[in-house]
């Protein structure tokens, strides 16, 4: 991985009864780190020195959010595993296991337990997101079964899940102004939308249909529609929806100064879709006042 680069591995899931939700992101070169951004301003920086295991829980038993950043000494990566401090991911050929032991901040609450993701198929689709080939994305396992067993908080549930990865050779904010990403199940597969606005003003829209065997087929996406901004930070949200139908926000899962994660309802490929959705505002992320706020949610440990 080059200096100033990054990689992350992303998992999300929700329970069969839709009462619980989970998001995990394991970062090397944490793209949302104020510490990494400050280090790059002084010159190129080593991404391994800015690793982070991020977990978000929603639902009964309490919402929890942990995002502790750690130095290179806390990072260990092999072909089949990634360890960041006390937490990590491991692949045994059939199951991806996340072992979590994190503490929320600034109000300390423990998040400890095991999450297992069982993929039904993997894709080979790995597009670039920018015009220079610096940033790439791989929807690895769009169809998965996730089992959650947490001792703290004491919750057990299972449901459908998703796993992907992004990696790149430079800061996101240098190449992009904003993006919206949306993934939702179809009766015979899944749809993923990825709409980016690049720093030079050009755009790219990815719309793919993924079969349950991992086959990826691009399709002509319907027009973009505007969703309500988030309540507290007014993050702009957009998605796509077929003409004659409406799209709406069913739930806002995370409302941060430059990022929102939501559940949206829309219509794609002739089907009603309830989808996981994210909006990222990198112009906002670059603002000094946002960078000054982030250490209050992203502590740094040795």
Shape: globular
Helix-strand pattern: EEHEEEEEEEEEHEEEEEEEEEHHE
Largest sheet: 12 strands, mixed
pLDDT averaged residue by residue: 96
Tell me what you see in this structure:
The protein is mostly beta strands and 302 residues long. Helix content is 7%, strand content 55%. The strands form three sheets. A twelve-stranded mixed β-sheet has the order 5-6-7-8-9-10-11-1-2-3-4-21, with no helix packed on it. A seven-stranded antiparallel β-sheet has the order 15-14-13-12-20-19-18. Strands 16-17 form a two-stranded antiparallel ribbon. Strand 7 and strand 8 (96-103) form a beta hairpin. The protein is globular and about 55 Å long. The mean pLDDT is 96.
Layout of secondary structure:
Blueprint: E1 6-14, E2 21-28, H1 34-41, E3 51-58, E4 64-70, E5 75-78, E6 81-84, E7 87-91, E8 96-103, E9 110-119, E10 135-152, E11 155-168, H2 172-175, E12 176-186, E13 189-198, E14 203-211, E15 216-218, E16 224-227, E17 237-240, E18 248-255, E19 259-268, E20 271-281, H3 282-285, H4 288-293, E21 300-301
Parallel strand pairs: 4-21
Antiparallel strand pairs: 1-2, 1-11, 2-3, 3-4, 5-6, 6-7, 7-8, 8-9, 9-10, 10-11, 12-13, 12-20, 13-14, 14-15, 16-17, 18-19, 19-20
């Amino acid at each position: 991985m080059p200096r100033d680069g990054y990689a992350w591995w992303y998992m999300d899931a929700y329970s069969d009864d839709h009462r619980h939700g989970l998001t995990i992101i394991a970062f090397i070169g944490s793209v949302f780190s104020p510490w990494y951004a400050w280090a790059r301003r002084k010159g190129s920086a080593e991404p391994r020195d800015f690793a982070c295991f991020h977990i978000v829980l929603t639902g009964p038993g309490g919402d929890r959010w942990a995002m502790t950043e750690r130095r290179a000494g806390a990072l260990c990566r092999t072909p089949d595993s990634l360890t960041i401090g006390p937490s990590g991911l491991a692949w045994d050929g059939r199951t991806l296991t996340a072992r979590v032991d994190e503490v929320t901040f600034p109000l300390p609450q423990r998040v400890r337990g095991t999450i297992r993701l069982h993929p039904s198929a993997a894709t080979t689709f790995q597009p670039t997101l920018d015009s220079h080939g610096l940033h790439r994305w791989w929807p690895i396992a769009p169809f998965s079964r996730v089992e959650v067993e947490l001792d703290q908080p004491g919750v057990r549930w299972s449901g459908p899940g998703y796993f992907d990865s992004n990696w790149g050779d430079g800061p996101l904010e240098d190449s992009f102004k904003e993006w919206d990403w949306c993934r939702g199940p179809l009766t015979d597969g899944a749809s993923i939308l990825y709409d980016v606005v690049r720093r030079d003003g050009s755009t790219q829209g990815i719309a793919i249909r993924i079969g349950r065997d991992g086959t990826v087929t691009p399709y002509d996406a319907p027009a973009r529609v505007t969703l309500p901004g988030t309540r507290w930070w007014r993050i702009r949200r957009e998605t796509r929806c077929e003409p004659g139908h409406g799209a709406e926000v069913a739930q806002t899962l995370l409302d941060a100064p430059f990022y929102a994660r939501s559940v949206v309802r829309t219509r794609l490929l002739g089907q009603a879709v309830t989808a996981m959705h994210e909006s990222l505002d990198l112009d906002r992320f670059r603002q000094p006042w946002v960078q000054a706020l982030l250490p209050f949610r992203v502590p740094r440990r040795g």
